[in-house]
Amino acid sequence: MKYAFSFLAVIALILIAWLGSQIPGMPYLFGVALPYLAMIIFLGGCVYKVVQWAKSPVPFPIQTTCGQGKSLDFIKHNRLEAPSTNGEVVARMFLEVVTFRSLFRNTKSEIHEGPYITYESSKWLWCFALIFHYSFFSIVVRHLRLFLDPVPAWIGWWEFVDGLFEVGAPTWYISDVGLVVGCLLLFSRRLITRHVRYISLVNDYFPLVLIFAVAVTGILMRFFLRADIDIVNIKQLTVGLVTLSPVIGAKIGAIFYIHVFLVCVLIAYFPFSKLMHFAGVFLSPTRNLRNDSRAVRHINPWNPKILPHSYAGYEDEFREFMVNADIPVEKELTPSKDE
Amino acid sequence: MDIPVAFKAGNYAYPAKKEKVEYLNSQSGLSFPNAREWSPEDEDWKLPAGWQDIILRGLKERLEKFRSLKIFMDCCVRCGACADKCHFFLGTGDPKNMPVLRAELLRSVYRNDFTLAGKILGRMAGAREMTVGVLKEWFMYSYQCTECRRCSVFCPYGIDTAEVTMMIRELLHLVGVGINWILEPVSNSNRTGNHMGLQPHTFKNNVEFLVDDVENLTGVRPNVSFNRKGAEVLFITPSADVFAEPGLYTAMGYLILFEAIGLDYTWSTYASEGGNFGLFTSNETMKKLNAKMYAEAKRLGVKYIIGGECGHMWRVVHQYMDTMNGPADFLEVPKSPITGTVFSNAASTKMVHISEFTADLIKHGKLKLDKSRNSHLKATYHDSCNPARAMGLMDEPRYILDHVVDWVEMPENTIREQTFCCGSGTGLNTDEIMELRMRSGLPRANAVKYVRDKHGVNMLSCVCAIDRATLTSLMNYWNPDVGVCGISELVGNALVLEGETRGELDEGLRTLL
């Protein structure tokens, strides 16, 4: 049901763009107005979200240490997993963001008769996530070609590496295949792995289906539905979008508008969804803090003024017992009046 | 998430007694409203009028105070990496014990009232209204989490369920929902200085019993003092160490160690608790209880503090104390009087872990150790959750073990940062939920069983007072022939004291004479 809804939603989006873009005058809506609107929502939403996060302080240093902390000279400090300097934190975050280090640690637990529990390394999720995210990233980079004029040379090199296998004509990019396969793998995993299926929400299926549809429409446009796709025409529009002087010259095929519309929906959906994890990971206090909280005082801006139950109050309550037990006291017992 | 929770005897910890809640509510800086008699099994939990608003306002306030909460509510992608990392999930098989789902219990309400998508799409976006059913779920599952942080090691965004559980528990206290096994120790600690409720003379008596025991066993009578002004060091350990086996032997280990090096130190009856059940209650409560440590150090005029073996105590000391109750500018940077080592890693809190202190002594050859005195033991080492994952204290205890006992590691996915909780931390070491505890402790017990069968391990060592109590029950159930001890017990047993007249002690400090 949850995934069926995601498919229906994406199919509806495709139909809207397909039929809508055929109405005279509407290409400007799908090719110009909506991309601007989506971009504004995306940028505004992301900034808003990050500012919202940053407005809340980090009252306590709650770093998660995943290795030996810095202590005595002869105890080997794990500088990556329990960083004590800013440089070490940057290294930890870099590896987390770029190599998904925490996912690399993943294990699979199984309970057998006995009972006994086994743990084995399980790198599937890490592997799928790498394929998906790096393909996505590479495709975004390659698309810069459409928005920059002249195209910087390094984008050409990037495309060369991405198309290194030189399969087909035009050349299939590794990242195109990677994104489609990555979506399929991550989606199947949600269906097949029992506990992941249980926890998955529409919020999890929908972006996968949407990104899958974006990738497929892109591929269709490049390889199969080339009839109405005049790249010069498209580039005129996309560069026009960047330079705030968009023009739609000759007619562009519906597949282009479908692709663009899906991308618009994706980036407009971004700030309101779990996809914000791309920014959130940098702000996660368990990962981005130094483990030096005993050496350097961390400040809590709202530290409430709370005093302990006072020693004086304590001694008042127990003074007699303390004196009798030869425990030093601040105030001696006052002799009672009848003595 | 739509299956309602059912409370029945054995699956919940008893609610806090009315008088304990009233007492805590009367203390300055604390708020514990809605004291009453109630039972989780009742349909009506006697929540205060407008309780939904109280909860939602409380949630809003906490979102503004804790960035962690906002990030953890927004960033989860439900990848499932945390699911089978939780000892409660492994032991109970209850899907709501997957860390991701435990967080979803709160996240669903967050979505409903604090996010645009949730407000528009409602259930479709995984949003739920705050209902009594949701509240009951919160109570059930925030007390089936020991805040051990194992899931946060595996989460690609470092989402820490401990943080989520802490928030849910704080919210529940706003409407008077809490458990007695936590709030009674909290009120004891506030009033008498320790969780056990030991009054000053009793506390002193208990330590002196241990002094007698050490004298009987070794012929040397350790010198102890209480509330002594002008001592160099204040020593604070969980009160459980002077209260019950096997913690008592750990405390004997401290006494022997300090006697061997002639440390100028004092115990305190006012700050007689290292542990801090406030951590399992609310940040305000934690601060109030913890404040005694610095207050007492200041009153006695000591130079610095040494802390005994305790797990959550050390999370509080390492990650919260200085921030909450510092700066401790009336203390000095800890310097070992024996080796001259300056503990620069504790330069600001001025509090040193006993394992750091001991490892340094051993490194400098200041202790005469006879490993053969522990030859009746084959040990293994349980990393306590908080020292491992909130401090990075992993190799100091191992360094000590290397010098005092023959020991082996448990399998690699169950130690160090991947260590499994005893299953009864965060105030869940109460007997009415014993089945739950034995279930959640299964992953730990299973790893011990592995080394017991393979290497003949008969002693499980650790640096945590809750562990010493709870692992004992756990071993009795799953691995009956394995004992539990603190590292300092093994140190004390191996230490050769000057002038000792110690005979053959077949079971070390546990030998009955």
Task: Please tell me about this protein's structure.
The complex is a heterodimer of chains A (339) and B (513). Chain A has helices at 2-20, 26-55, 86-99, 101-104, 124-147, 153-162, 174-192, 194-199, 202-224, 231-242, 254-269, 277-283, 311-324, and strands spanning 107-112, 116-121. By secondary structure, chain A is mainly alpha-helical. Chain A folds into 2 domains: 2-97 and 134-283, Fumarate Reductase Cytochrome B subunit (Up-down Bundle), CATH 1.20.950; 313-339, no CATH class. In chain A, helix 1 (2-20) packs across helix 9 (202-224) and helix 1 (2-20) packs across helix 11. Chain B has 2 domains: 18-178, Fumarate Reductase Iron-sulfur Protein, Chain B, domain 2 (Orthogonal Bundle), CATH 1.10.1060; 187-510, no CATH class. Helix content of chain B is 47%, strand content 5%. Chain B has helices spanning 18-25, 51-65, 67-75, 87-92, 99-114, 116-121, 132-142, 150-154, 161-174, 180-192, 200-218, 247-261, 283-300, 311-325, 354-363, 385-390, 395-404, 434-440, 442-455, 465-478, 487-494; strands at 233-236, 265-267, 304-307, 351-353, 379-382, 407-408, 459-462, 483-486. In chain B, the strands form 2 sheets. Chain B has a 4-stranded parallel sheet with strand order 2-1-3-4. In chain B, helix 12 links the parallel strand 1 (233-236) and strand 2 (265-267).
Number of E strands of chain A: 2
- Taken together, the total number of domains of chain A comes to 2
What's the SSE pattern of chain B? HHHHHHHHHHHEHEHEHEHEHHEHHEHEH
- The count of helical stretches of chain A stands at 13
Q: Helical content of chain A, roughly?
A: 55-70%
* Count of individual helical segments of chain B: 21
The structural domain count of chain B equals 2
- Report the CATH topology name of the largest domain in chain A: Fumarate Reductase Cytochrome B subunit
Q: Roughly what fraction of the amino acids of chain B lie in strands? A: 5-15%
Strand order of the largest sheet of chain A: 1-2
Largest interface: A-B, 97 and 116 residues
Compute the separation of the termini of chain B in Å: 57 Å
Q: Could you report the average pLDDT of chain A, rounded to the nearest whole number?
A: 93
Structural class of chain B, please?
mainly alpha
Looking at the structure, what is the overall shape of chain B? globular
Outline of chain A, from the CA principal axes?
elongated
CATH architectural category of the largest domain in chain A: Up-down Bundle
